[in-house]
Amino acid sequence: MKKQPVIRVLTGAGISKESGIPTFRDLGGWWQQYRIEEVASPQAWKNNPQLVLDFYNLRRRKLKEAQPNAAHYALADLEKHLPVHIITQNIDDLHERAGSKNVLHLHGELMKVRSEKNPSLIYRWEDDLHLGDLAEDGAQLRPHVVWFGEPVPAIEEAAKLTSEADIFLIIGTGMQVYPAAGLTAYLPPHAKVYYIDPNPAPLHLSQDLEIIPATAVEAVPPLVEKLKRTYA
Q1: Which helix (H) or strand (E) element contains residue 32?
Q2: Are 8 and 161 in contact (CB under 8 A)?
Q3: Is the CB of residue 34 less than 8 Å from the CB of residue 111?
Q4: What pLDDT does residue 102 have?
Q5: Measured distance CA(13)–CA(216) in Å, rounded
Q6: pLDDT of residue 25
Q7: Alpha helices in 67-195 (DSSP H)
Q8: Considering 85, 95, 107, 144, which one is annotated as catalytic?
Q9: Domain at 1-20+68-107+151-232, CATH from 3.30.710.10, 1.20.1250.20, 3.40.50.1220, 3.40.50.720
Q10: Which of 98, 141, 156, 175 is the most exposed place for a label (fewest CB within 10 A)?
């Protein structure tokens, strides 16, 4: 029996945009008068917590309207046949809703909240979050999201997962946001890398790299079928 390759996947906003998840700019309207740091940073939370809550409440409502797309479902299907672990920069839950079990969220999760004093007090949260909604320690609840200027607690686990990859898929990301963009430094020399994005950024890797200039919905399902035929 042939050895199955260990597959790791890094996903970015591009895979979710095809499900109708709006980017910050796509939210439009009165949000256009703000910079993202003004609604997604510890300073923003200190200065105007209501504005921050309004921003994430809108995003949570938009997420509840969205559905996973063919790329999400293809990755969930791949996990049924091969050892797959997804590392996502996205805070939505579309990978999980498509059926993926092994998902590491680098930047937190929109459908969860946590105590502003104790980061380990985390709760599933479906509705709007308000000032006065408290954790069991009595502290105000805040979005369970990594804001600008905050450390990324999951990056060490992500680096370990990347270092195990025989095959590494990069999907829907411009590889501009750090520390996520630096994960490729942990790839083993033998890894095969597939980079799927309609506007791929230059990647300077010593590993075998195949660039697929297409959207996630266009490219992920056929690539998954290829991997299943070859290795499953």
Answers
A1: none
A2: yes
A3: no
A4: 98
A5: 10
A6: 67
A7: 70-79, 94-98, 155-163
A8: 107
A9: 3.40.50.1220
A10: 156
* Helix (H) or strand (E) run with residue 148 in it: none
Between the CA of residue 100 and those of 4, 24, 222, what are the distances in Å?
18, 26, 18
Give the β-pairing of 108-115 and 122-124.
antiparallel
- Please report the sign of the dihedral spanned by the C-alpha atoms of residue 60, residue 61, residue 64, residue 70: negative
Neighbours of 196 (CB within 10 A): 25
| Residue 107 among the catalytic residues | yes
* Cβ pair 121, 140 in contact under 8 A: no
pLDDT of 30 strictly over 80: no
- The Cα–Cα gap between 193 and 175 comes to 14
Strand partners of residue 144: 109
Sort residue 179 into left (φ over 0), alpha (ψ -120 to 50) or beta: alpha
Q: What is the pLDDT of residue 23?
A: 75
pTM: 0.94
